[in-house]
Amino acid sequence: xxxxxxxxxxxxxxxxxxxxRLEVTLIGEPKNDSxxxxxxxxxxxxxxxxxxxxxxxxxxxxxxxxxxxxxxRSIPDLDTTxxxxxxxxxxxxxxxxxxxxxxRIISLIPSEVELKVIRLHETASSYAxxxxxxx
Length: 135
Prior knowledge:
Blueprint: E1 2-3, E2 16-17, E3 21-27, H1 45-60, E4 64-67, H2 78-81, E5 85-88, H3 94-106, E6 114-121, E7 127-131
Parallel strand pairs: 1-4, 4-5
Antiparallel strand pairs: 1-2, 3-6, 6-7
């Protein structure tokens, strides 16, 4: 994914990309019913991966993400120069992207499962993290 930080006072004001990595930690009680296929699971990893893939990876992968409240929206031919441009209603920092992703995941996981931690790595050594107990 690529982004640009409008108004930033460093090189990240320019369009640049990252190989983001998202980590999601859930908590809950494992199912204790030998009659169900998902016995012993809090949530099937396949189901969680599908939520993340459909609602985050498929949306943001190889996209150019820009602050929709910036002049970037009026750049001529932006949407024809780039195939996948997403305007968000926030500055697309790692921290704000993480908050967006958190909200997308929380709204789609089963009610008996809790999102405990979500971490978005922008680079190998830089990341933002949200923890349920901090809120």
